[in-house]
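Reply to dn_fold:

You asked what the input looked like. This is it:
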Amino acid sequence: MTNLVFFSSALILSVSCIVYSANRKTLQKVQGYAFFMLLINLAVSSTADIISNYIESSRVATGGLLFTQILTQYIYFVAHSLLAPTFALYIMMVNGSAIAKKKCFYYLFFIPAILAEVLILSNPYHNLVFFYDQNADFVRGPGEWLIYLMALLYVATGIYYLIKYRKAINAVTNLTLWYFFSFTIAGVIVQATYDNLKVELFAEALSMLGLMLAIEDDESMIDPISRAYNRSAFMAENTRLILTKHHYTVVSLNLTNYRFFSRMLHFNEQSDLLHMISTWLKRLDRQTNVYRVSECNFSLIILGKTNDEINSIIKKITARFNEGWIYGRIALDFNVQMRIANVPEDVSNPELLMELAEDMDTVEKKGVTIQRNDDLYFLARKVQVESALHRAITENRFEVYYQPIWFSGTEKIYSAEALLRLTDPDLGRLSPEEIIPIAEHNGLIGEIGRIVFDSVCAFIADPRFKELGLKYIEVNLSVYQLIMANTVEQFEESMRRHGVTPDMINLEITESASLNSSGTVESAIDELKNAGFHFSLDDYGTGYSNLTYIISMDFLNIKSDKGLLWASDTDENSKKLLMDSIRMMRRLGMNVIQEGVETKEQLDLVLEAGANLIQGYYFSKPLPKEDFIDYVRDYNTSNKNKPKIIGMT
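and this is what came back:
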């Protein structure tokens, strides 16, 4: 009776999982079909065992009952012997190692299972697997141990692929597979050791329930609006496929004008539209998974297709988006930036594939534009620059240059801005405009910022710095450094080591960073202010300024963006705006640093408006430390070659 309870429980669990899986509204990957076969296998095995065990325990079977008992035993053995190979295959599908395997692999993989099935089906002729004695009692034959040996072979295969490709899936999935794999093996061992305790099926059914809830229930990987897979699933799938050395294609569709149309639609209408697009993309090919990676992006992962088949899919997508979409009474002509990357030939990094989907061109083009092969050079360039940054940190290749800042009150060099420079042996000179965004994205900005800050502290501690009469050094601070928890501690440690006080360093943050800062950023700014640092607002005039907020931040300096200055050379309105903004900031009691001054006319203009600190090539380009020291010493102690300043008040 105890065994009937175990068998019945296994049946209830497996049938419940079948019903739940069959009625899920989520997407099905190939591994889902393997999992479903495991559930069917367990349900059939449990049903067969219930019938056979009930007949055996209730009476001595003869005639039709004996035939039914023997038949259900055959059904059990035929079905259950397939459980081990199916489970091993399922593991390989979860970690991606089974995808795109050649046919010869599967022929070899299933040979032991086929031999076991032949042994079972031919059992009436040799009784090597099992037989019933004259008392209708079940008797194991030596062939059953061969079936267990076959199962052990598949268990070993599953363990091998679990270990080999453990990095292809996340830690939770790995732990889940190991736990329930071990749980199943424990059930087999208990039943093999204690023949009267039939717990194997129950242990397997419990394992299937755990796998279904932890792995197969992929609702957390589904975008709730479009019902496509989400960005987490996109990242996980690319990681899995790359680590298991697959060749495949990613097609990224950036709907560059989606936000324009979204303003015309209510939220429910936007959801319907995105679901309509997602559904159409899914119908292109059953083996192609569709992902909504960002608000404006759908991406496809295409496996096992020839170039002609991939080009056919691309042509269908192009034709569909050129045709336009109709939602209600609105005609939606999306501009689509389609990027096609072959993995690993074009891209071999999951993070770069994410950028393929997120990084849109700033200049929008009408219709469908396609980028592939050489058009994706920017991704390869990013990999090269990232490598250069890692090398520069390891080999101490970063340099800090200093650009003088001139003060109208004394007509001398008053301070300087510290600027990062890097010359890579392979890539040559790399500009900060290229370095900083990449460093911010990959997390190296914290270490690079520490290097710059420490170099500035070392310069300030140099006795020659005091001889120059400089008041402080401007140091750029990325908003990402403010998010990092240890930035303030790093700065304080560098200052202690070099004997520098915070009044000798002025931290520059950009207008966009200050206005869009989170609570974490504001807390970090307050902490730095409490430590004695002052702040400058960089690139003032490039964003939508909130003057109340700027005043409340109590900036020491406001740095006027060079773009507005250069535009004023040819545009009268830009000139008026520049002069009015400088005058306003000066009336509010703030110093104004005008950057980008390159000509005498520009200098006269900003001095007339009231700018009291000037930075630009008119005085000097950024210089290495030793050249900077020589320049400032010469400029501040000699009137020779000084610019003749007019219009100064």
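The first strand starts at residue 130 and ends at 132.
Hope that clears it up.
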